[in-house]
Amino acid sequence: MKHYFKGGAGGRPEVVGAWIRGAPLKFIVPRGLFSSSKVDLGTALLAEFMEIPKEGKVLDVGCGYGVLGILMAKLNPNLEVYMVDVNPVAVDAAKRNAELNGVRVTVLQGNLYEPTDLLGIKDFSTIVSNPPLAAGKEVVKEIIEGAPARLKSGGSLQLVMAQGGDWAKGVMEEYFKEVEVKRKKGYALLRGYV
Ligand SMILES: C[S@@+](CC[C@H](N)C(=O)[O-])C[C@H]1O[C@@H](n2cnc3c(N)ncnc32)[C@H](O)[C@@H]1O
Fold it and tell me: Which CATH superfamily is domain 14-193 in?
């Protein structure tokens, strides 16, 4: 199993504000986490692009300090939002940020789908991710290959890729009935439906 994380390098946490899809959001971010000084551009693009289901369970894989999962919970309080990160510092930050933004979510520490598999969840309406490219393509492949078995019929996997968008599209086409790609500011935004 390959993954990476940078711990939280000490020092004062950053306070990051963002206004996404009409929702004012605020995050307290330990230094050293991914994009700790501002919401990452890829994350912001996926946040604008992603379809947010009307109901059901959703999963943010590699949630970091929580932008995507917290936004989904904020925009649709009916959703059951799960967020997973391998880095305990990110998990802790995501939990505190959920509270700060007044949303109820479940944040779990662990590798990719393992924490939600342990809860027996196999019926997500959508899985979203700004995947850990720094951990290598294998991890992205695991996210893509593993998604269909954890989605309910008609559900989707939604990804942003800063690089390797064509490769990811090819992999998704093997596993999903329908794949859409939109390119914006050098990023690929991908959506696959089962
Ligand atoms: C590119 S960052 C995105 C963070 C956050 N979603 C955002 O958009 O700001 C990828 C995240 O994946 C996490 N990660 C890396 N390997 C992982 C694994 N095997 N399982 C779960 N999370 C992982 C990292 O700790 C990091 O927080």
Answer: Vaccinia Virus protein VP39 (3.40.50.150)
Is any ligand 1 atom within 6 A of the Cβ of residue 67?
yes
Tell me if 143 CB under 6 Å of ligand 1. Answer: no
The one-digit pLDDT tens for each residue of the chain (194 residues) are: 445 555 555 678 889 999 999 999 999 999 999 998 899 999 999 999 999 999 999 999 999 999 999 999 999 999 999 999 999 999 999 999 999 999 999 999 999 999 999 999 999 999 999 999 999 999 999 999 999 999 999 999 999 999 999 999 999 999 999 999 999 999 999 999 99
In Å, how far are 17, 60, 142, 183 from 166, measured between CA atoms?
32, 22, 16, 11
d(CA 95, CA 107): 6
Q: Please name which of 174, 172, 171, 163 lies closest in space to residue 191, comparing C-alpha atoms.
A: 172
Q: Is the CB of 3 under 6 A from ligand 1?
A: yes
Instruction: Output the residue whose Cα is nearest ligand 1's atom 13.
Output: 62
